[in-house]
Amino acid sequence: MYWYQNNNLLKNSSRALSLLMGSALLFWSCGSPSATKKTQKSTAIFSVDSFFNAEVNRLQQLNPAVLKSVSKDGEKEQRELKIGSWKNELSAFQAADISKNFDPSLYEIKAVDCVTEFTAKKKELQIQKLRIEFDKNEKVKHIHIDKKITNTLYDSQEKLDYYSDSLYRIVKLQDVQGLDANQYEIEGKFIPSKK
Fold first, then answer.
1. FRET pair for 177, CA 20 to 30 Å: which of 6, 24, 27, 195?
2. Comparing C-alpha atoms, which of 190, 123, 183 is closest to residue 150?
3. Cβ 177 vs Cβ 154: under 8 Å
4. Exposure of 64 by Cβ count < 10 A (0-12 exposed, 13-18 middle, 19+ buried)?
5. Is residue 7 pLDDT above 50, yes or no?
6. Are 105 and 12 spatial neighbours (Cβ–Cβ below 8 Å)?
7. 3 state DSSP class of 27
8. Nearest-angstrom CA–CA distance, 120 and 95
9. What is the C-alpha to C-alpha distance for residues 178 and 42, in angstroms, rounded to an integer?
10. Among 160, 140, 167, 170, which residue's Cα sits nearest to residue 46?
């Protein structure tokens, strides 16, 4: 699941500055005075890759049980299991990082009530939407990603959702030229540990 490659190397310092200012206003409205300084960095250049690297390490140590469902074209299978490699399990999320060589001219950025949303201005961009929702303690509560790949061989659309310590979901619709379209969904629900 390594589909995302960002080739944009342009920099736009005036828009980056306005992004930083918008982030400061966002977290001023979210509550604590310390939130502004700390979260400016995470939303201005929020690194999906770094966030999921930390999650992979944390989950690898915790080794939580997961109720995992996989469905393809309506057929569903579900099992309770332990994930052997969280790096592989969350690779689709990690690959959807827009922070590398970020160009603010390519995304419309909205920051309202502890939610920051990056929406692509061009339909050719693979990451069409990145939405990050923080809780009152400035921790990531939910990440939503809309991803799209269009080329001469196939069209692919993905919706990825990650709710910290709750569930993760990948829904993918792929239409390959000359074949029927297919859809699959992967969902993992974290099972609370019994003490």
1. 6
2. 123
3. yes
4. middle
5. no
6. yes
7. helix
8. 17
9. 43
10. 140
pLDDT in tens, 156-168: 899 999 999 899 9
d(CA 193, CA 149): 38
Q: H or E stretch including 25?
A: helix 13-30
Nearest partner of 145 among 124, 121, 119, judged by Cα: 119
The CA-based diameter of the chain, rounded to the nearest angstrom, is: 57
> How buried is residue 149: exposed, middle or buried, by Cβ count under 10 Å (0-12/13-18/19+)?
middle
What's at 26, amino acid-wise? L
The tally of CA atoms less than 13 A away on the side-chain side of residue 172 is: 18
Beta strands at 115-120 and 154-163: parallel, antiparallel or unpaired: unpaired
- H helix and E strand count, the chain: 5, 9
| Alpha helices, DSSP H, located in 31-78 | 33-44, 48-62
Q: What distance in Å separates the CA atoms of residue 116 and residue 23, rounded to the nearest whole number?
A: 8
> pTM of the prediction?
0.74
Using one digit for the tens of pLDDT, what is the confidence trace for 57-82? 999 999 999 999 999 987 899 999 99
Residue pair 175/155 in contact (Cβ under 8 Å)? The answer is yes
Amino acid in position 134: F
How far apart CA 104 and CA 156 sit, in angstroms, is: 25
Neighbours of 195 (CB within 10 A): 3
Pair of tokens at residue 107: 């995304």
